[in-house]
Design goal:
This protein is α+β, with helices and mostly antiparallel strands and about 230 residues long. The protein has helices spanning about 30-40, 45-55, 75-80, 85-95, 115-120, 150-155, 195-205, 210-225, and strands at about 5, 100-110, 125-135, 140-145, 180-190. It has a single domain, classed as C8orf32 fold (Roll). α1 crosses α4 and α3 (about 75-80) crosses α4 (about 85-95).
């Protein structure tokens, strides 16, 4: 895993097509999804894999987060839900398996429209190391955020992030009613693989220990289905 500090027009894209422990697109379950999406959308795979991750893997900020296995693409696919980083890793796996160079991006954001349950867990609107992706399409890197699923956006009145297969598709700054929603605060750069320790250290630096404990407790309930 390496952090790429700046764009290089002559860079070797091969490392953005490789499977890794986390981006394990060589697993049978990932290969099956790619095969089915290729049959249905042979000429529009960038948008197809984005829409699959956005809507077929609902956003759940309470999924387990503290072990490396919690972030493997195949595990997120099996679990059927995940938070931003987990969904970004799954998108990277599906895209790379489709022949689309993909890398991970991390940034700190503020979410001004947090549901009460999430606020009660975090006690802050600051989200450290929000994860999303850059896909290499049309000869350039395009930023895409598959985090919030269509059903959740409809339920909460949020603007859905829609990707046309060519242009940037990241969080909107305001919701459908004009309320301030997402603000990008800090950028941590782009990576060719998941920087697990960096992310966990970032969480522990950004949040007090009691918040981490609440998150772990809720994730335990999520694992047990209670």
């Amino acid at each position: 895993m390496r952090c790429i500090k700046s764009a290089d027009p002559m860079e070797d894209l091969s490392r953005y097509l490789m499977p890794t422990f986390y981006i394990d697109y060589d697993s049978p379950s990932i290969s099956h999804v790619v095969s089915e999406l290729t049959k249905a959308h042979p000429h529009d795979m960038a948008r197809a894999v984005f829409n699959f991750v956005r809507d077929e893997i609902p956003y759940n900020p309470y999924t387990p987060f503290y072990r490396p296995g919690h972030y493997r693409a195949s595990e997120t696919l099996k679990r059927g839900e995940g938070f931003c980083v987990q969904k970004a890793v799954l998108l990277a796996a599906l895209a790379r398996a489709s022949g689309i160079p993909t890398r991970l991006v991390f940034a700190d954001i503020r979410n001004y429209l947090m549901p009460p349950k999430l606020w009660n867990m975090m006690k802050t609107d600051f989200f450290a190391f929000h994860g999303y992706d850059e896909l290499y399409v049309d000869g350039t890197w395009v930023k895409v955020t598959p985090t919030f699923d269509k059903a959740m956006c409809k339920r909460l009145g949020l603007r859905l992030v829609e990707f046309d297969g060519h242009n940037h598709a990241i969080f909107h700054s305001h919701d459908l009613n004009g309320r301030l929603h997402i603000e990008y605060v800090n950028n941590h750069g782009v990576f060719d693989d998941l920087p697990f320790k960096t992310i966990l250290d970032g969480f522990r630096h950004a949040y007090p220990e009691d918040m981490i404990t609440r998150w772990i407790d809720l994730s335990h309930h999520a694992e047990r289905g209670t």
